[in-house]
Amino acid sequence: MIEENKEKVLILDFGSQYAQLIARRVRENNVFSEIVSHKITAEQIQKANPKGIILSGGPASVYVKNAPRCDEEIIELGIPILGICYGMQLGCQMLQATIQPTNTREYGRTACTVNNTSKLLKSLSKDITVWMSHGDQVVELPEEFESLAITHNCPFAAVKHKTKSFYGVQFHPEVTHTLQGSQIIRNFLYEICACTGDWQMHSYIDTSVADIRKQVKDGRVVCGLSGGVDSAVTAALIHKAIGNHLSCIFVDNGLLRNYEAEEVIKSFKDNFTVDLHAIDARDRFLNKLKGVADPEKKRKIIGHEFIEIFKEEAKKISQAKFLAQGTLYPDVIESIPAHGGPTVTIKSHHNVGGLPAELGFDLVEPLRFLFKDEVRKIGEELGLPEELVWRHPFPGPGLAIRIIGEVAKPRLDILRNADKIVIDEIRKAGLYRSIAQCFAVLLPMSTVGVMGDERSYENVIAIRAVETTDFMTADWCHIPHEILGIISSRIINEVKGINRVVYDVSTKPPSTIEWE
Ligand code: XMP
Q1: pTM tops 0.70, yes or no
Q2: Which of 34, 267, 423, 432 could serve as a FRET partner for 392 with CA atoms 20 to 30 Å apart?
Q3: Ligand 1: which atom is nearest the Cα of residue 396?
């Protein structure tokens, strides 16, 4: 957990797809939040000393056997509780309300009337739009409760207990479709939990720098740079803490985007006086990938080769005792699969680039409490170049999983040139920041075209652009047709070997973001 004396709100997760969103909304309002299992005991909560508790939504029904529950003693702790959707139903049930399936299920945008501006709904308009997603609801509420808001189908869209500090909302204030949702979260934090808002990125930097110094003392830290924002901010934070006791390793695997390797090296040399080991391993990776078409095999080869190179290089850095990693909060949350069973491996990506424990280093992970948007804020505060801080995520295996089938140098060159045009035009149109990830994919086929009076039989590029906050679900971006037109004609005219461009209009799920 974060420092004992920091204000925090605990989010008890009942398998909600929105738990991380709740945590982020709380933090955006300057209060630290942590997601914990719903199995946490009242005693553990008391020890953690949170200012408030939020019970998340979840896919179960509170009245079925084995539905996830929480320690009922939490109601008696005197710590304010906000139940959201399933969390509201559970809290109300613990306080003697009756929950039943609804006749008309409510999904999506719903008109809601506020009929009691208690602290929770303070400063809201009378008519609000909320996001509903439920098949059960409170049907009977004991006298000790007050109803705060209603919808056409839901007589208890928001409730409050008269004597205990329990509030509930049937809708989801954490999603942006609930238009005044952030105000509701703010009301809970400041009007009900009496938070002061001490979660600020500049103070996080100070605390983190002090922690790194305490952990590392005068030891040497090795940090792998990938070119992405997480490893860059990790290195920058550690550099601020221990200066030239930091050594960075950057491996050019030949699978990076246009000029990426040069840019990473330059931006580190310009911004820091670090001991930078830049390794040109392009041939080594390409040789290993010869003849390999299977995506999982590619991932394994690239991951394995990276570890080998990293090990060889780290051995050369004398007295290196610590390894810095850009692990983020979403990777460390104790997640609860909603369906209760083990999850299947769709892609093995989260292991690629991860370094095994046998390397014998102690880990330094200064970002392990942070979400990506917080990491970006820290990057900006530390003065990293905007280009680096806002760079779209890029997979560890790089362009190898954007060339469908076998990877070879000529195909990498084609893809790099096409990808650069996509990114340049998206930037020019001012869309780069609003898109979560955008790139080109080279397909394993040729199609017929006509160029001049000649028949051509050449490659196809697919463009993928998605909007997402957590990369678990994603929608394809509605990029204006004119921009797509410019990208397409530039790629066909400027990149030799391409005579067709297509746009990917699939959501995740069922499609994934990367094509491999
Ligand atoms: P998918 O394709 O699973 O991608 O929808 C979700 C996010 O993960 C990235 N991704 C990877 N990242 N190694 C990585 O480090 C990988 O092998 C890998 N595969 C996918 C993808 O770019 C997206 O941001």
Answers
A1: yes
A2: 34
A3: 15
